[in-house]
Specification:
homodimer; 330 residues; alpha/beta; Lyase, Ornithine Decarboxylase, Chain A, domain 1; TIM Barrel; 9-stranded mixed beta sheet; 7-stranded parallel beta sheet; 24% strand
């Protein structure tokens, strides 16, 4: 099928770009040095490509992602890098034979893990981003609490989310060092094999972590595109021009097809003015006609993919595979 | 079922609030004076409530919404208030017995309507928002072109989208008058019964239109909440507190559960700091514990609903109905 036959808006994944990104990351962080984060693509078919590149351990953000990965046969070592108040669905995944490790940052979340039937945890440590994670000094106490309740503590995690997007590499390095100093110290109190941290923006900077939780590298977006990383833009949103006025044009790709928290998308077709629910208004860089197709690059990959039900893998203008975005929802 | 049993994040619709909004709008704009826009809720069960309130004509933003409304038995008079380059799917909906009117703003979109099997159109006129719509002076010529090709021209539409959100009512009134002066003049050139325009922010201001295309009024959001309209906030996102730190707390409701183009959501539980993919970080207004539930109010209803697969209708803390968000996608 040619991309012209697709209903728009549609998510396109450039096959060569994806393969480049997977290969570049697998060379830099082979095997278990990378624990790919599936939240960026929410697609078990893409996760299988990551597994084929040598990564057998995965990071998830939601219970639904853990369930979907296990159901797809990718449940060898799944980390839910997020706290939950009710782990019963995760306990069922464990009972069905998958390995699930759950992030915990409080006695309440440890008790929830135990009550739900999860047997392995990581102590989530706040390394500077005001989100989840215990205070570094509390990590040892929480590990003791977990072990006291019969749980296996595999180590620590701590996400330097306030650092991964900094455009200045020197600043990223300095701030990562500060964050990881906290995490390494907490790890000394906690024990276990794993120091899990990092993201696409710090994949080659964070040398303190034993494993990196990067996800965006596979598809990329304009925010990470500013960082000079060795990954190419593999994801675009295909849109159709539906209206042409003197001075601007409109394509059928709007707020419901794009994550907007990092701002407007970009397009080679011209300068983006604004997005509405189902529209992208832009100033074309060359004359366009109704029916013309344009490629739009999202500012933030994760919430963009979450709006779509499929990724269309392309080789030039040929659609070679359709991958369901099967890890949506919670 | 009690709301405590719901997996979070979950969209809740307060039944009394919804009924209030539907009744208030039906009193102000009875029957065909309102052509409810389904893009805000994407839910045929909710559209059936609007039909029960007396509205039998509907506005859609996507081909998929038209197909879904027709399949749900709500195809008496559907307007796709948007241009398409390929109307063949709409032609099949017409062939199956629904009435579909399509917005056109160029010879190309008129030709697409004709080629696809759509027989009725509205001429979409630009009334000040740089998006779709022909120049007002072109409307008569396009109507002639459509009639020459055997299409029925039902009138004009023109969306004052640059006006509906203005917080100052006097300004909204002035700018609506300017926009509608253009539309009424175009209508004189085009003919037909319909002058279709307006939105929730101008529902009682736009007296030039024969029908108003409001949609957000049913559920509401914080952006429209600033306008002093007679509609109450009926939609909330239910979230669970998963982490509590000194100074802030985190709930499991993030960028993939909220449309973010109008900025951060709000919550009675405290001051919102920021959203991440699956997290809302906020400063609680009173002590919270892991497992506590909070209600989050989205800044923009349309792209929020589009992330979810169901609306849970509630009476207090009791879930009385589950409505699929069945008009998602394109």
């Amino acid at each position: 099928m040619n991309v012209r036959e697709l209903q728009t808006p549609a998510l396109l994944v450039d096959s060569a770009g994806l393969e480049h990104n997977l290969a570049a990351m697998a060379a830099a962080l082979p095997g278990e040095r990378l624990r790919p984060h599936v939240k960026a693509h929410k697609c078990t078919a893409l996760a299988k490509r990551q597994a084929a590149a040598g990564h057998r351990t995965f990071t998830c953000a939601t219970i639904g992602e853990v369930e979907g990965m296990a159901a797809a046969g990718l449940g060898e070592d799944l980390l839910l890098a997020n706290e939950v108040a009710d782990a019963s669905r995760l306990g069922r995944v464990v009972a069905d034979g998958a390995r699930v490790t759950l992030a915990v940052d409080s006695e309440a979340t440890i008790d929830a893990a135990k009550a739900g039937g999860v047997t392995e945890v990581l102590v989530d440590v706040n390394v500077g981003l005001p989100r989840c994670g215990c205070a570094p000094d509390d990590a040892g106490r929480l590990a003791d609490h977990a072990r006291h309740h019969g749980l296996t503590v595999r180590g620590v995690m701590g996400y330097e989310g306030h650092v991964v997007g900094l455009e200045d590499r020197t600043k990223r390095l300095e701030r990562t060092a500060e964050s990881m100093e906290l995490l390494v110290k907490a790890h000394a109190d906690v024990g276990g094999d794993l120091i899990s941290a990092g993201g696409t923006g710090t994949f080659d900077i964070n040398t303190w972590a034993t494993e990196i939780q990067a996800g965006s590298y596979a598809l990329m977006d304009t925010a990470y595109g500013k960082l000079g990383l060795p990954f190419v833009q593999a994801l675009t949103v295909l849109a159709t021009v539906i209206s042409v006025s003197p001075g601007w044009a409109v394509a059928d790709c709007g707020l419901k097809a794009l994550g907007m928290d990092h701002g407007n998308p970009t397009t080679d077709a011209g300068d983006v003015w604004f997005c509405s629910d189902e529209h992208l208004t832009f100033k074309p860089s060359q004359p366009l006609e109704v029916g013309d197709r344009i490629r739009v690059i999202p500012a933030h990959v994760d919430p963009t993919v979450a709006y779509h039900d499929a990724l269309y893998v392309t080789d030039g203008d040929e659609v070679v595979e359709k991958w369901p975005v099967d890890l949506r929802g919670w």
